[in-house]
Amino acid sequence: MKNIALHGLAIGEDSKKYVDQIIDRLTNEGCTISVTKEFLERNSELLGEKHNVVEEVDSSFDAVFSLGGDGTFLESLLKVGKSEVPILGVNMGRLGFLASIAKEFIKESLFLLFKGSYTIEKRSLLSLESNTDLFDGKPYALNECAILRKDTSSMIMIKCYINGDYLNTYWADGLMVATPTGSTGYSLSCGGPLMMPDAKDFVITPVSPHNLNVRPLIVSDDSELTFKIETRNRSFLVSLDSRSETIENDVELKISKASFNAKIIRIEGNNFPDTIRNKLGWGFDKRN
Asked: Which residue has the higher pLDDT, 152 or 37?
């Protein structure tokens, strides 16, 4: 692991020393360090002009270090795209499901990384297709694709088909399709189930449905989901993770599993059960 790219948010004063620790360790390991254009613009004084600057991260890189929270991790994934370069998430934000390495443990984590004590997890992505160009040629998501009402208090009507077969018409504030990775995010807050990261499924989760007997539905990730939407104001919102676009009613949407994966570097001793226990407070007796 010799060619490393760094991407991140604006680094606060209390976190600058951790970035220095990362750069020092990579330098000592003889790594070639590059930074994304955005990371440099956000931290020009901290980074200076001593690193290569890249727009995208191609297959010549061995890894990307994402320095921030989960939102920064999703930005890093857009930089990686179809090249499937593994991403190491360092949590300099708040919750950190994806950016699971606490900044206070950077030294220990990098020691294990260069010792070879890590695994690379493959995570499924969603691919969005439509009869119009969307999301600047990057119509994919790691967490979820959501269809939401916009600029109206009225519910929207979403007709859903699975592999061409009619499933249901949802009257709701919206609907999302979430991956196993995304099951810990927006879908969870709307009553969706948690799924293990290696599950071969997606979950369809309604957002504030009109019919209370409509519940989240788990479907195989080899399914093709088609959606036809009707709204009173003739437009609605579609989001892919943290990105969103306004779309007209006559646009048909198809969601399926992407042909490529996201790859996450998981340091030894840091696993998904540990993450959900720590982040969601499972197993803690609040009576004490």
From this structure: 37
